[in-house]
Design a protein that fits this description.
With 438 residues, the chain is an alpha/beta fold. The protein has 14 helices and 16 strands. Strand 7, helix 2 and strand 8 form a beta-alpha-beta unit. Helix 5 runs parallel beside helix 6. The longest helix has 19 residues. Bound molecules: (4S)-2,6-dioxohexahydropyrimidine-4-carboxylic acid. The site of (4S)-2,6-dioxohexahydropyrimidine-4-carboxylic acid has 11 residues, from loops.
Amino acid sequence: MPSYLIAGGRVMDPAHGFDAELDILVQDNKIAGLAPHLPRRGVTVFDASGLLVVPGLVDVHVHFREPGDEEKEDLQTGAKAAAAGGFTTVVCQPNTDPPIDRQRRVRWFMREAREKAIVRLHTAAAMTMDLAGKKLTNVRGLKEAGAVAITDDGHPVQKEDLMQDACKAAAACHMLVSPHCEESKLRPIGHPQVKTDFAQEAGLVKRDTERARRTGCHLHISHVSLGQTVGVLKRQKSNAVMVTAEVTPHHLTLSSEDEERIGPNAKVNPPLRTKEDVQVLRRALKADIIDIIATDHAPHTPEEKSRGWKDAPHGIIGLETAFSVIHTELVLKKDLSLQEAIRKMSFRPAQIFGLLPAGQIGVGLPADLTLIDLDRKWVVDPEQFFSKARNCPFAGSELCGKVVMTLVGGQSAYTDPVMQTRMPKRTSRLQETLGIAQ
Ligand code: DOR
């Protein structure tokens, strides 16, 4: 691949703490130079002035439904949606059909992902066989096959001794344990909680963090939704328990009061909560009690989501709106700095899930980069999504800030049509170099 220069962008790398106007030289899929005003002679130049250049974003919680439910999403469309949202690395959940619960299925996934996906895909594996909560999987074997965490996804492991065994096995081979502390009971529209919710979320987080303390495993809590859970996390973090946590863009911006307006595209597990919960989650994210942002991109078909509140499946898609939602609702409203938002969507998730060097910009590292126009306003139209699914609760919202280009190993995985205007005809060589179809 010929070398080229990404010139004059505002390059921000929260991992190394820089935010400056720099040139990036890309050579052989890697970053070969990073400095102000690199020499331009003989190099194809891509003008990134006025754009923010950040490490490729990392999402550790997506559902790409392959194998088994490819009518909702598959590895190819899921990866395209990820790229359009600025993500260069994602971690898929194992609740497929069949689930990713044995070594050969992890290996199958890694092979398919390499062949089909334009971004880097990883998978979490099941904690129990068939996600049935009865028999522990071969945790060490799954780790050796390439899985980056274990989780039973939407089925929290109820048996305490089994959870204890899972934590012990994970600690022994440094596997991340990522429980979903949620319930999947139907809740009436507009009701933020049912009586058992505390027991189900904060209670399970308390139980599981105790297990982590006793066994020494690293526990990562999926999609925190309740203010009470933040209290438990804060206490356990101050007890030096190895626990990290994530929150979704929808739990940071929507409440159960929005459900009537949005309908089944707001039906999700865990459910949307109160406006007070939203505020507590935002403060916890800022204070690092909640470490990262993850989308829980959960595609369902339009037909399934048209069945009404009672019968539609739970789930919200998020890859193609995540950055813009966080920028519009948290960064511009000063609940999080831009640098904090990028760190929590790139370096920190990569660090927690053992995916480094993803989430960083540095000489010698793969050229996984996301270019963003922070001033661009756009209206969310799910019909334009690369995802097969349309279950987006932000349809029709005007957002500010848009991913305009995503590079994986220096090659374009997504280029916004507007970027073509930055590449007049004479730069068709540049388009060729970047791998953009002309
Ligand atoms: O709403 C949800 N849908 N929450 C989950 O945790 C799982 C997901 C799915 O797989 O559809």
